[in-house]
Amino acid sequence: MTTTAAAKAVRTRVADLTALRISVWQKGYLEDRSADVAALARLRRGAGRDAAQMPDLWGLVDPQPLHFSGDGQRALSEREAVRGESALYTALTLWALHQQSRGTPMHRRHTPEKPGGLGAAVRRLMTPDKIDEPVRKRLVRAGTAPDIVALGQRLREIVALLRREDIPLDYALLAGQLYAWQWPGGGDGVRLEWGRSFSSRPSVNLSADDMATPPAGTGPDLKDAS
């Protein structure tokens, strides 16, 4: 396997595990299951913070499937494992912040009809015919972060804006990008992906459900608003 192919394979493993973790918590949270509501409350305390400072979350994030896939995949190198764990932690904690008090799924997989990449989500913060420069610069600033902790902090600011407008994001896609971003030269590729996503147009109009804000007082809006 080439180096590039190996990196893509690990990136996919990080994305798949992120999707698996969120799918369980998101379903439970939207059904108001106390264990999942509590898990999200713990996770969002880590949003924008160094994982090393959040030992309470180490068992909750649980990156072990990255190391022991059980399906014949090779073991990760130390550098792959560290970067994979950082990407998983950052994506999960940001999603937990995004999902707080929202009554619809804030993690939604990307499709050509409904782009779910970070750039596309940021673009939806703007009116279709106008670029909001301060918002666009937040995306640019995130892409130039010096390390994964700073990147998480800058993404936290963007996630807060997306949450306010009920705009979902593909966190599995983001986790894979966060993994790739940590490798030498990886940031260039990820910034290119975000730029293409920002310029993308959905092939169909988004439905009202995609744009709607749930009525106040419905769903889990108030159960963990603190």
Automatic annotation (TrEMBL):
* Residue segments, region Disordered: 201-226
InterPro entries the UniProt entry points to: CRISPR-assoc_prot_Cse2 (IPR013382), Cse2_sf (IPR038287)
Which Gene3D superfamilies did the record assign?
Answer: CRISPR-associated protein Cse2
Q: What is this protein called?
A: Type I-E CRISPR-associated protein Cse2/CasB
Show the taxonomic lineage.
Bacteria, Bacillati, Actinomycetota, Actinomycetes, Kitasatosporales
Chain's gene name: casB
